[in-house]
Amino acid sequence: MDVLIGLQFGDEAKSKITDMLAEKYDIVARYQGGANSGHTIYHEGNKIVLHLIPSGIIQPHTKNFLGNGMVIDPYGLMQEILEVEKYIPGARDRIYISENAHIVTPYHLLEDIENLNSIGSTGKGIGPCYRDKVYRQGYRVVDFIKNNLVIDPIDLLGKDENDFFEFEQFRQGTEFMKTLNVVPSNWLREQEGTILAEGAQGTMLDIDHGSYPYVTSSTTISSGAATGLSMPPQSVKRVYGVCKAYLTRVGNGEMLSELTNEIGEKIQKVGREFGATTGRPRRCGWLNLDELKDSVELNGVTDLIMTKVDVLENMDTVELYSDGEYHTFPGWEKSDLSDTNLIRFINFIEKKLEKKIDMISVSPEREGIIII
Ligand code: IMP
Prior knowledge:
Oligomer: single chain
Bound molecules: inosinic acid
Strand content: 15-25%
Shape: globular
Largest sheet: 10 strands, mixed
Low-confidence stretches: none
Helix content: 25-40%
CATH topology of the largest domain: Adenylosuccinate Synthetase, Chain A, domain 1
């Protein structure tokens, strides 16, 4: 099993890389998170945004697994499957759901929306759902699908009547889920073929290793793949680490190299840095090599990929934050390896990280990849 993870605050344009790599894999599996992630893929001229379904779904030969480490909103999943099937008929037949994954209930959604301002969460019920899981009072897929659990909205009496609407949607979602491939937790271990585990969010949002408390509620780093997919740790072979040529962050929390000036605005505009899940503008800044080095080591990255290099094209100067200070480089005109200014930028990063960059991504299209 190989793992692909984000080395920063999420939004490293990982799904384009997953989609490209998925050609070589039989199974693509999500091991943590839920609909807080937004994975945008361009397929035959159509923009498809995935939240729960692994990005492998675009490749017709793949099976796609939602592992036990995930938290799933059934109505959201239903809507996503119906949307994806407009472009990829029969997609649901290639989706497999672990019966040990946890369910995001309307209570979780409502609570998360009420708490929106503290962490700046996506409002998708992630924190409350994981809290209940760890507190041993959560609901798993199996509880609804096999044990026919029913959640009674009676506790919500006295609240807004829209809350009842959410329960009706939830009921529809769980009925729909019963028609899908719900499989035992160890399903992946029983499969033949190559596996790519797809991380969501990024290392700096990891519950243990990120900028706590401004983090998400799951293990986003590569080590989470084993437990979140019910696989032994030795099964992890390659770790693809993805970072952007700069830094972005949505939600609250420290961001040392943030640019609150017109350069930051330019990067935001050119890089289309708006959240795929919430539409919120992403805060932009220079690449922080001190944090990146730690992420590379923590995840045991074997293959390093840098995305969105083209976004920094045609800037007079580009900066990097390293060893507590800023380093200034002349900008590049073209994002290809004939431009010596780009090479200089890449060399500095490789030296600091003590790690070669294996690929750079220079456009949103699948073809826009340069192998170094
Ligand atoms: P939650 O995961 O919705 O609880 O949000 C916790 C923090 O993680 C907030 O700062 C979110 O903006 C951030 N976050 C969650 N999912 C993503 C993602 O997929 N990309 C980037 N940031 C995310």
